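Attaching the record inline, Q. Sequence:
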Amino acid sequence: MKTQIETATPPVVGLLGLFNISYRCAMAAEAAGKPDLPVVAFDFDPKTVDYMRQARSEWSSSSCA
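Structure, as predicted:
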């Protein structure tokens, strides 16, 4: 997803994650050098919740519900 985020026309303005791989949206935004890219995730998998709380909490206190 890194390449798609970097080369998208029009540019990516956010990511939507579903099911138990939503944490990959945050990882892709980071890899593309866009850590401020909003990620909305509908996922209660413990791995995703932990990742979003730890890694994304630095950028936004509302990253994870």
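The chain has three helices and two strands. The first strand starts at residue 15 and ends at 18.

More tomorrow.
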